[in-house]
Specification:
There is one protein chain. With 740 residues, the chain is of the alpha/beta class. 41% of the residues lie in helices and 12% in strands. Strand 20 (647-650), helix 24 (661-665) and strand 21 form a beta-alpha-beta unit. The longest helix is centred in the N-terminal third of the chain and has 22 residues, at 170-191. The relative contact order is 0.08. Bound molecules: glutamine and zinc ion. Zinc ion (ZN) binds at residues 417, 587, 627, 629, 712-713.
Length: 740
Amino acid sequence: MTNKTVVLGFPRIGEKRELKIALENYWKGSASLDELKSVGVQLRLRHWQAQSDAGMATVAVNDFSFYDNMLDLMVILGAEPERFYDIFDPTRRYFTMARGDATHTAMEMTKWFNTNYHYLVPELHEKFQFGEINPSKILEEYKEAQTHGCKGSIHLVGPITFLNLSKCPENVRAALFDPLLDQYVSLLTVLQPLETEIIFHEPSLSLDLTSNDLSLLKIAYNQLGKMGNVSVATYFEHSNEATSVLIHTPIQGVLLDFVHGEKNLRSLDLLSNSDKQVTIGIIDGRNVWTNDLSASLRQLNEIAAYIPKERLRLSTSCSLLHVPYSLRHEISLEPEVKELLSFAEEKLAELSLLEKAFFEHGVIEFPPQTKNHTDEAVQSRLKGLVPDDFKRFSPFSERQKVQHALFSLPILPTTTIGSFPQTHEIRKVRQALKKGEITQENYKESMKTAIAHCVKFQESLDLDVLVHGEFERNDMVEYFGEQLSGFAFSHNGWVQSYGSRCVKPPLLYGDVSRPDPMTLEWSLYAQSLTDRVMKGMLTGPVTILNWSFVRNDQPRSLTATQIALAIRDEVDDLQRAGIKMIQVDEAAFKEGYPLRQENRAEYEEWALRSFLLSTAVAEDDTQIHTHMCYSEFTDIIRTIESMDADVISIETSRSGNRLLRIFQEVGYTQEVGPGIYDIHSPRVPSVEEMEKQIHLLLEVLPATQLWINPDCGLKTRGWGETEASLKNMIEAAKAVRAAL
Ligand code: GLN
Ligand code: ZN
């Protein structure tokens, strides 16, 4: 077998989520550590087997983890936070860092670049002292692969990315760079005798780098590159700036993403004049569609015009961690959808096909891709769009007058973000419907009972603006996807989100349309029960897009426009039926921002237009709300302003009024509901505490501009704490109103 392909990592959760089950059993105490470890052994073996069966000359070692690779790396590098040193048992310490216990809060977790995978954030500070390195995990897994006849390449997050993801201030980074590098050097000294390739994952090199980053990069790989067969992998974007540095270091080669970082082509000249091995990330490692192999082959040949084939290898664009395991279990997917798909196992097969075509046969023709899921009605509607479709009828100042007259709410109106507690019983009812155990009629009755209870509950609390409670929704994207054309749902398409948590994103494969209203019945029923204002509740187009696997045969912007049209129809149906306050959630608007500055303006433009298209159908007296699950608006405040929502609710409860100031600084005029308490914890804040928070907000924005609400939906909370918190919130609002 020639060494012409390499895999950057395989989904470790297991074909049937074996790792999830084993972890949860271990945490519950119903499985022993040995049992957990043996599941790890079996999974690794199976995953290596899959790689070598597909013809990969080497398999990925150290891509497995019982929780997270960054956490593993902290252990390996002696970089565990000191606050866990009181736990001596290594396994207990490991899982406590990840999950916390009675005396330790868990480490912070955040998204791995622009994926939906979450890593644990290293806790570095200026005086941080690294402990001993601890390479046993890598050595053991390497040997394990060897025992099974597999040659492993070792995968590790590299020093630049490790420091970058530690989110420490510049001075700490500067102080810790040398000691960190020493840890890596010690590690490589231990790994060197294995005489195998060490692949450093450095996705941070695909971000906008400072000249300081580049000089650290040079120092790091001048040193590490001398220590054996070392390569550097970047992904999710091009890394041209870093490439121009790396080619002058003694590393063996670079692995570059030519799928999401096509601009890496600009480095071909440089690379051709260097002696580096170049591994071409050509199979999309983070989306679920089959590669257009003919197009891939054309691209490979373009690259081969610069770099001799002897110096080339092929790989996936990033670790396959970000895609589901296998299509084998998808028995209920429509054949015309299934044929579009390629999960991790299928991607290995694609890689191997491409390898043969490229290295052995020269040019070969692959069957043309048969993707044609267009809907003529959608297409002609898109063609008919005019600028006015993206603009509300009147400016906000005029709309505000009409809306105030219509709703006649008190100042500092109180409301919630939409969902109320999703109890076990509610989930059981939804599952029973899915399994066909109850009729549609029974189901509706149960949901209506829940809605009626929720409406009564809100009235008894004296909330000003009510919601129906979202009991019918399993998930804010899946609920809509299931009712839209162009979406499909896999049976087993799980992707690890963090630890044992997995998500099953919708598959957005074709033109999107809305055959029937999606929320109208629930909202109207809820409204029929009360004289108070009932707020309709929708998920916005950008969020639906960003939380799905999106077709790649047309620009994302176009797909977003199609979703926007579907949501627009729902907005219009709601307002015509008398629901005059409608919230369009954009929880994932910010997540979709491209990694590099150079691409942000374009995203902002189409994301904004999509939101506008979905909401601008609202008459002046229909009040559009939006909600965003974060608080850092500084860099995108102008975009938020241009979304032209009449009211925006945001998450600021944990930061006093600091993050709200930007709204004041830019002279933001629309209304704002800065969440006044944190729904991520069961804690019930007192009336005084919330009053204080409202006064803090009033230092920044006038009462006429403020709404009072929790900072996100209440679906993960219990009814008891929800009642207590909302009661206090409303009492606080009333007290402040009276004082004004
Ligand atoms: N309306 C949704 C809810 O209340 C919003 C959730 C979110 O922003 N993540 O659950
Ligand atoms: Zn939220």
